[in-house]
Amino acid sequence: MKKSNPNKKRISLKRQPLVLLIFSSITFSLILLRLIFLQLLNYESFKKMSDENRIRLIPSQPTRGRILDKNGYVLANSRVKYSLIIKPQSVKESNWEKHKSSLSDLLNLDSNLIQKEYSYGKKNQKLSVTILDDLNADQLIKFKENEDNLFSFEIATKLIRNYPYKSLAAHVIGYTQPITESEYKFLSKKGYKLNDLIGRTGIEYVYEDFIRGEWGGEMVEVNSLGQFQRSLGIKPPKQGNDIELTIDMNLQLVAEEVLKEKKAGAIIVMDPRDGAIRAMASKPTFDLNFFSKDFKPKREYNMLFNSDEKPLFNRALNAYDPGSVWKIVTALAGLESGKFPIDTMLETKSCITYGSQCFREHNDLGFGVIGFEDALRVSSNTFFYQVGYGVGVDEIYEVSRKLGFNSLSGIEISEQENKGLVANSQWAKDGRGWGEPGRTPWVPEDIASMSIGQFVVQVTPIQIARAYAAIANGGFLVTPHLTKKHGESLLDKKRILIDIDQKNIQLIKSGLRKVVESGTGVSINYGVANLPPVSGKTGTAEDGEGGLDHAWFVCFTPSDKSELLVVAFAQNTPGGGSVHALPMAREILKVWNEKE
Q: CA 388, 391, 397, 403 torsion: positive or negative?
């Protein structure tokens, strides 16, 4: 048997303290590095996690800014809903039964209901629970008179968007709705809370950041079990900014009233000097307060979102066949081209053939040999067929673009706006939006239709307002706007001088004056005392989608230095612009004239 070496054993024993020292040093170094990582390098992160576990926020909703008309009338504000709450974790058990009984007797509430809500909050460690939602005035007064003896209970407020005039200017003002869970993922970074309100349409949507305000709340400390310890302070919510519109409620009210008897339509009242909108109404309309209800009846919901009448649709910004109100564009195209100078005289006929169709005069007779002014006065079709065919589609298109057609108007609520359609030869070559390129060429029938605003022309009432404002103000294209700040538009838009000869604009303006003096618009003066001189144009348009005719009337007053422009549109209302649209404009002029 081999003997062990005693020297080797002694050496091994001598190394044991060294190994232990090295192991201890490494262990200590690792612990030290971990402490440095936790206490120094990652201090802020862990402090935040600690605070989030220790501190809770009871949020306080901001008051959304009001929406006012130009004279300060409130069109949208916030209504306070009062709820009775309890903070279960701050209740002293010795006083609970007494307070519960007092509240039950005071407000005639079931004490079992109060106990149920309290127990639920206590069990689930809720910072607050609602005992009674939406107190009426009597309940609120009773509680306030006795709140010194009801230490465990508080009144919580919830702000609900409120529209005092219900459907007035509904499409302009717009509405709010709670944000969705998917929206919350990115809106939370901007300070929104889950189910917070956000503007969906109209002014509520466009100026959301300006009028929404900022949340406040109370910071409270809780222990590791989530139990209330103390209040750390209150940050008041920041109220949103009020916004003042250019809308004049008196004119808005009459605009809504005159549309009541129509199936559908729109009214625009505008200052032609700067584009300030004084009234904008669309029918059918809807009650804005529907969107403030916690529970929305299915029948009301379907009437809004699934109805064939489409009440949410803003017809003032939607495109339709303009008919004869378009004739000023054809006239300017003829004048600007040089092919039809100011002194042009054309023979009007019962009908003129283009392609395979004879396009008729609206009186089936013709009006003899007439010039531009009289052609506008009697609204001759065959006069403008000849002008349109003589200059061609692209000349009409170019002039229409200068007047603001085939583009958005620049109004704030552009999310509701349709830019319409003004055809040109390239549009036809490209397939007209539905066919194959090269297989839908421009045909003679198209130019006849285009000359009087039919089928290959679709425009919005707001575009018509811009074009006629340029005639009224002497050649400036204005940007329609709904808001103002210290007397100026929030959009800070300027007037643009259009590239059209002033003499040609004055000729059109003179023709529009004759329309009202002795032409198709003469009845605008009936029943209105001391009305300043008015210029205007009637229009009757076939519906390109196959419905009944549309009725149009546009006017501005005073004729020389115009302060007010009205576009009246009755959708699918056959009988003529002078019969159905003109009387609506007359009522608006009457109210404006009396006020002025």
A: negative
User: Is residue 19 situated within a structural domain?
Assistant: no
What is d(CA 223, CA 99) in angstroms, rounded to the nearest whole number?
A: 26
Measured CA to CA in angstroms, residue 390 lies from 342, 346, 370 at distances of 15, 12, 16
Dihedral pair phi/psi, residue 122, rounded to 5°: -65, -45
Confirm if 314 and 409 have CB atoms less than 8 A apart: no
User: What was the pLDDT predicted at 486?
Assistant: 44
Residues 281 and 219 in one domain: no
Which of these, 102, 81, 266, 307, lies nearest to 170 by C-alpha position? 266
33: in domain: no
Number of domains in the chain: 2
For 23-57, what is each residue's pLDDT tens digit? 777 887 777 777 776 666 555 654 554 544 567 76
Helices 327-337 and 461-472: crossing angle in degrees, nearest 10, is 50
pLDDT tens digits for 299-314? 888 889 999 999 999 9
Q: 537 and 517 in contact (C-beta within 8 Å)?
A: no
Rounded CA-CA distance 392/336 in Å is: 12
Q: Do residues 198 and 71 share a domain?
A: yes
- Measuring CA to CA, which residue among 210, 174, 213, 176 is closest to residue 191? 213
> Which two structure tokens, joined as six digits, stand for 266?
């729109």
Q: Do residues 395 and 473 both lie within one domain? A: yes
Domain shared by 289 and 207, yes or no: no
DSSP state of 583: H
Residue 474 forms part of a structural domain: yes
pTM across the whole model: 0.82
Strands 550-557 and 265-270 turn out to be: unpaired
